[in-house]
Amino acid sequence: LPGNAACSSPSPSTSIRVNAMSASGPVYEADAEAVVRRITPPLDRARHKGQAGKIAVIGGCREYTGAPYFAAISALKVGADLSHVFCTRDAATVIKSYSPELIVHPILEESYSVSDGERESVSSRILTEVAKWMERFDCIVVGPGLGRDSFLLDCVSNIMRHARQANIPTVVDGDGLFLITNNLSLVEGNLLAILTPNVYEYKRLVQKVLNCEVNEENASEQLTALCQKIGGITIMRKGKADIISDGKTVTQVSTFGSPRRCGGQGDILSGSVAVFASWARHFLLTNEYPTEKSVNPMMLGCIAGSLLLRKAASHAFEKNKRSTVTTDIIEFLGKSLEDICPAGH
Ligand SMILES: NC(=O)C1=CN([C@@H]2O[C@H](COP(=O)(O)OP(=O)(O)OC[C@H]3O[C@@H](n4cnc5c(N)ncnc54)[C@H](OP(=O)(O)O)[C@@H]3O)[C@@H](O)[C@H]2O)[C@@H](O)CC1
Ligand SMILES: Nc1ncnc2c1ncn2[C@@H]1O[C@H](COP(=O)(O)OP(=O)(O)OP(=O)(O)O)[C@@H](O)[C@H]1O
Ligand SMILES: [Mg+2]
């Protein structure tokens, strides 16, 4: 996909800069608006359905139906053409009833619905079902509202391995992080993997991988070490500032969003990052300027997603103040992107 001609025309002098520094230096703010402008594809009349992105969320169980919905609908609102959800049967009808826009596959199973004797056949049926679709996706998001059922997580591990073999970028969030923290080989060395831990999820990762506690004084060094230890994957540590690293560089987005910390904002973020990472990957794959080839598209996806969520949260808070909830923020994803990168006609 070419860069958005309505926002900037591709030329060597406008190459993507993330203002990233080496691990030992200070953390610089990314030029996130420039990143969004550069990687967002134009709305070209010649393009057909699917070319702006096909995303899948693997998540949604008996307890959680909001999280996968937030992630999947955010992907559409940012600009993807198709958004799928792979969830359990109980969750599917509920998610479908939130929105007719989503394509919902009720295929995952939790332990309570599968007898011991059936496990192997059910597990292989689930993988076959998802594998049918996998190559069509530009990115998958594993974990929002997935739950922690052991059989379900085993099946999702198979799906992750399959995505990796098929070279599909994978954002791991929520319970997906619980899964990979206990099974690091699922993401180790996968340069197309992005982890988006919140404060608890990051703590668990640091304890497991680095065998120490989170150190705020050396936050960027610790994050860089974590990425390196997991084989150069990209991690966005969410918080007051979202700090992003791939083990080589580290940067941050700290544009103020909202003082409301309602649940679900991380889900918006994971769906948005999936779309931007796909756009960045297509942009860099088709870009003729060698200087930009060295930029990590997964980092760009994180930078762009973080900025957009923060802008949308800020608009939503301005309007709704203390009653701001996740749905209000999703409403402003479109305006926030439009302000940075107008769609034109
Ligand atoms: N509207 C919705 O549907 C939303 C749904 N959401 C979804 O919720 C899921 C969990 O995500 P979260 O962010 O609450 O987990 P997190 O920060 O690790 O934990 C905070 C504390 O809780 C505990 N704990 C958590 N999960 C547990 C479990 N299954 N069983 C037992 N304990 C658990 C945890 O304790 P610990 O693991 O340390 O023992 C920690 O102290 C995830 O799928 C997310 O996508 C959210 O996206 C929000 C909107
Ligand atoms: N202390 C903070 N100050 C400002 N913004 C924050 C703060 N903590 C988180 N955020 C923003 O909220 C977004 C979501 O981060 P959060 O830590 O709430 O994720 P989460 O716990 O995974 O959310 P979810 O409830 O969806 O699971 C981050 O991208 C960040 O922009
Ligand atoms: Mg979360």
UniProtKB/TrEMBL annotation:
Its cofactor is Mg(2+). Coiled coil: none annotated. Keywords: ATP-binding, Lyase, NAD, NADP, Nucleotide-binding, Phosphoprotein, Signal. SUPFAM superfamilies: Ribokinase-like. GO terms for cellular component: chloroplast; cytosol; mitochondrion. (6S)-NADPHX binds at residues 145, 198-204, 267. Gene3D superfamilies: 3.40.1190.20. InterPro entries: CARKD (IPR000631), Ribokinase-like (IPR029056). GO terms for molecular function: ATP binding; ATP-dependent NAD(P)H-hydrate dehydratase activity. It catalyses: (6S)-NADHX + ATP = ADP + phosphate + NADH + H(+); (6S)-NADPHX + ATP = ADP + phosphate + NADPH + H(+). GO terms for biological process: metabolite repair; NAD+ metabolic process; NADP+ metabolic process. Its EC number is 4.2.1.93. Residues 32-340 form the YjeF C-terminal domain. PROSITE patterns: YJEF_C_3 (PS51383). ATP binds at residues 238-242, 257-266. Belongs to the NnrD/CARKD family. Catalyzes the dehydration of the S-form of NAD(P)HX at the expense of ATP, which is converted to ADP. Together with NAD(P)HX epimerase, which catalyzes the epimerization of the S- and R-forms, the enzyme allows the repair of both epimers of NAD(P)HX, a damaged form of NAD(P)H that is a result of enzymatic or heat-dependent hydration. This is ATP-dependent (S)-NAD(P)H-hydrate dehydratase. It comes from Oryza sativa subsp. indica (Rice).
